[in-house]
Amino acid sequence: MRARVAALGLLLLAALASVPAAAQAPAQTAAACPPSAQMPSHDAMQAGLRSARDRGFLWRLTKDDRSSYLYGTVHVAKLAWMFPGPQTMRSLAASDTVALELDLLDPALQRRMADAIAARHGPELPPALEQRLQRQAQADCIAPELLAGLTPMLQLATLNSLAGRRDGLDPAYGIDLVIAGLAHGAKKTVVSLETPELQLDTLTEDPETPIAALVESGLDELESGRARPLLNKLVRLWAESDEAELGRYERWCDCLKTEADRRAMRRMLDDRNPALAASIDALHTGGTSVFAAIGSLHMFGPQGLPALLAQRGYRVERIGAVRKE
Description:
Elements: H1 6-9, H2 11-17, H3 42-51, E1 57-63, E2 66-73, H4 86-93, E3 97-100, H5 107-118, H6 127-139, H7 144-147, H8 152-161, H9 175-185, E4 189-192, H10 196-202, H11 211-224, H12 227-239, H13 243-247, H14 249-252, H15 259-270, H16 273-285, E5 290-295, H17 305-311, E6 315-319
Parallel strand pairs: 2-5, 3-4, 3-5
Antiparallel strand pairs: 1-2, 1-6
């Protein structure tokens, strides 16, 4: 799928890309580069929380006379969207445990992620293709050290995660990171529902498709400018809480044209959802109220998390309505 839904589907990519000034390749001038992500001050954070409104997708999950919550996030966002709105904050406050795909603020998980990335070695690309990767990174002001040591597919996925920075979209503003920070600050129990190894395996090159072909296809999307508007549309629909339109993404994303694309989509979403649903259920039935924050593309269709949790006996209620900017 050329890593084109990474902003909604795979938290690992946001972790790879959300480093200070992902950015600025030394050869580029500041005027030619997108602005680096700037974290708000404490006062600005408090003001942002006071004025925030709800975005994304929130469900109440009721079973055994207790409620948990399921929240569809994006892993790439704008600064103004970082702050959870009132309903989201109330649901977070009412929960004992916060469950994330990966708790990126956990030092042990950070070390494990670094070790897992270092242990993976991708195949060498043809020199011309390697040069295209380097040129794209330079065009987007991405420092070479950000991609050093990554497999070709991880390099490509990182480039896709950073494709919207000129539009103010940055992994540093990812909603999951904010939820993790609020949860740790409130001394809640924070758990990771997946492992870095599992998310890396999700990006394992398709054995039926040569790696060079996958990288070339992904670079075609970036170089042509097609990747950036798609990313903008995906996150805009999240910001507008437009469940109906985002739920139809397969019809307009132009990302399922080949069998390789469809296999990648299944690996990224459908194949992971049963285990995610089982883990949320285990936490809830263990006696805790859970606030589970997971990429929004995991929420839609018969294999989406709301549907799978309904099958496990939960009453699933959508909180909030579709809202247009």
